[in-house]
Amino acid sequence: MMTQSEIEKVKVMYPHGTRIRLIKMADPYPVPSGTIGTVICVDDAGQIHAKWDNGRSIAVIPGVDDFETIV
Q1: pTM for the full model?
Q2: Residue 60 to residue 54: CA distance in whole angstroms
Q3: How far apart are CA 6 and CA 12, in angstroms?
Q4: Mean pLDDT of 50-64
């Protein structure tokens, strides 16, 4: 679990509209690696919810899933 301070940092780092690219997701039904999406929000648990370009909407978890910001 993340501390409140860590969650606030994630919210600042990944504001609504940030574009991210998935590298690897630890989920039984992952978004394919390389998929690009747009951050919708960061929830109170620190999960980053994204609308993926392939139509899916699933959160990534910092420290569990691997992803990068697209500039």
Answers
A1: 0.94
A2: 15
A3: 10
A4: 96
